Amino acid sequence: MKLSVRVRSDGQDHRRSKRIKVFKSADLLVNGVRSRSHILNVSVTGAMVHTPTSVLVGSMIRICVAGLDRHGVVVWKDGSKFGLRFNRLIALPQIHALQVENGQI
């Protein structure tokens, strides 16, 4: 099931915060089971994640990547990708640290 309101009929992206592309390996903890995943993009409010692990919309998840440790809820799913809304915001310097570590800036 795909639940998303990323783009409205006027073609504009109306997200709460700007997404920054990253491609970073991450550990995902779903129902006590750890799996390897990748963060594809991140913002102060959430992330898009790719994982071989089955997740359901509404699932609570813990994600750990490069010193960043956040809990969140799955808000949409499309195949092996899902949107994660963090339970608390990430500071912009932490996002930029992910980019620097990944060699993107």
UniProtKB/TrEMBL annotation:
Domain of life per record: Bacteria
Domain PilZ, residue spans: 14-89
GO MF term list: cyclic-di-GMP binding
InterPro entries reported in the protein's UniProt record: PilZ_domain
Protein name: PilZ domain-containing protein
Native source species: Sphingomonas abaci
Organism ancestry: Bacteria, Pseudomonadati, Pseudomonadota, Alphaproteobacteria, Sphingomonadales
